[in-house]
Amino acid sequence: MKNTRELVLEGLLSFDKELDFSSKIIKEILDKNDNLTGPEKAFIKRLFEGVIERRIELDYRIDSVSKTLVSKMKPLIRNLIRMGAYQLIYMDSVPDSAAINESVKLAKKRGLVGLSGFVNANLRAVSKNKTEDIFESLKDDRIKYLSIRYSVPEWICEKWSAEYGGGQAEELLDALLKTRPVSLRFNTKLSDEEIKAAVSELENEGVRLSKDDRLRYVFSAEGIKGLKHLKGYDEGLFTVQDISSCLAIEAAGIKAGDCVIDVCAAPGGKSILASEKAGENGEVLSFDLSEDKIPLIKENARRMKAENIKAAARDGSVKDESLIGKADVLILDVPCSGLGVMGKKRDIKYNASPEKIAELIKIQESIVDASWEYVKKGGRLIYSTCTINSYENEKQAERIAAKYPFKIVAGPVQLLPHKDHCDGFFYAVFERTE
Questions:
Q1: Cα→Cα distances 320→254, 302, 366, 369, 373, Å
Q2: What CA–CA distance (Å, rounded) separates 261 from 375?
Q3: What is the DSSP letter of 322?
Q4: Band of pLDDT at residue 412, cut at 50, 70 and 90
Q5: Least confident interval from 16-30, 51-65, 264-278, 352-366
Q6: Whether the Cβ atoms of residue 145 and residue 169 lie closer than 8 Å to each other
Q7: For position 20, what pLDDT does the model report?
Q8: How far is CA 405 from the centre of its chain?
Q9: I need a surface site. Which of 187, 269, 316, 359 has the fewest CB within 10 A?
């Protein structure tokens, strides 16, 4: 039988090999091993996600004590030592002896008896040096310091330092590493009193809630142990949605009776909020490129009682002549690098690159080019992303205003985690002038 650490090891090997989404991998591990206790599942999740999140720092620490660079190690040994190092540095509940000895045992169990001494020696060296301030010696090289301190590739540190200055870039990187509460968005059809009653029910279940002053229906929530088991979830009283995307939809100015087209809609959060704004006399056409994601949009819409949503698979970069002039509001929440949600999606920073972003920018432009005519004269277009990158954000907004008959009426707004206490998110709202 595989123990918790072996399950983590297999997940990390799968992540390295397949470059699959880490959230998908951890979900599969926990679903397949439903017999595990709550603390065991929590340990697996913390260790798996922690190793991925802190990988650059862990590799630096290991390289500083090892005769063999991490990049030259066998994949299994590399991840085993990373796991041990993470436990030594970041998991106070795990004794150093357990972190080291269990790693050695696992190396032997996986048929690498000859390398078990190597694992032991490296982890003992990491343990011995773990209280040293390894970052102080890096401060003369600001970019390298930021990269290792916050486990983010140097090119991102360089870009944000250039755009925001070194001090603010560090605050931003620090904010992305911190655990943030879950953002619960209550159904806007509920009155203030009904929301208050629903909040009281959740608090009775041990959830700690605090209202966001910016919107009456958004609350930060801590202590959630199982979202789908909370009272009110199945009834559609609330959903998980960051306030950043709620603010964007609010800025779009959707009115009762409006026709809203959401071109890149999955998993449907913006479409559902838009449907609540449009009301029973309005309609929301909710599209996504992936056929597999349409059932998710429909299920979320069903649960939230958003009956005016029609969901279908459609390529946003291909113009649909039947939609021209139909939209009072067009939502273009385009595919992006996702740098603003690195704190939630730990694999993003390793999969993103300047080359991939250049390709994404072409896709963003193709979606705008194919879709802008859907907006009626006097109607609105909202362009948004969950990234922090001027080339995907401000530059694209400038392109829309320069190339097409639109003027900016709200924004552009770049929300930053360390300042705005939400995801890194961008939006700009345009009105069609002719």
A1: 22, 26, 13, 12, 10
A2: 9
A3: G
A4: very high
A5: 16-30
A6: no
A7: 57
A8: 33
A9: 359
The DSSP bridge pattern shows strands 259-262 and 208-211 to be: unpaired
Strand partners, 381: 330, 430
**In sequence order, what are the beta bridge partners of 219?**
184, 211
Binned at pLDDT 50, 70 and 90, residue 19 comes out as low
Q: Which amino acid is at 122?
A: N
pLDDT above 90 as % of the chain: 76
Of 22, 33, 348, 344, nearest in space to 5 by CA: 33
CA angle 211/217/221 to nearest 5° reads 45
Cβ atoms 135, 148 nearer than 8 A: yes
pTM of the predicted protein model = 0.90
Q: Under 8 Å CB-to-CB from 391, ≥6 apart: which residues? A: 357, 361
CA angle 265, 271, 272 (to 5 degrees): 135
Q: How far apart are CA 219 and CA 216, in angstroms?
A: 8
Domains 182-240 and 252-432 alike in fold: no
Radius of gyration of the chain from Cα atoms? 24
Q: How many residues does the chain have?
A: 434
- DSSP secondary structure string for all residues of 22-84: HHHHHHHHHHHTTTS-HHHHHHHHHHHHHHHHTHHHHHHHHHTT-SS-GGGS-HHHHHHHHHH
5 has pLDDT over 70: yes
Contact of 62 with 85, CB cutoff 8 Å: yes
Instruction: Please state the domain extents for the chain.
Output: 4-134, 142-177, 182-240, 252-432
As given in the structure block, the two tokens for residue 281 are: 């006399």
* CA dist 214 → 152, 179, 220, 250 (Å): 31, 21, 12, 11
One-letter amino acid for residue 346 of the chain: R
CATH number for the domain formed by residue range(s) 182-240: 3.30.70.1170
CATH T-level topology, domain 4-134: N-utilizing Substance Protein B Homolog; Chain A (1.10.940)
**Which CATH number is correct for 252-432, 3.90.1640.10, 1.20.190.20, 3.40.50.150, 3.30.300.30?**
3.40.50.150
Nearest alpha carbon to residue 220 among 241, 190, 197, 194: 241
State the CB neighbour count (10 A cutoff) for residue 177.
16
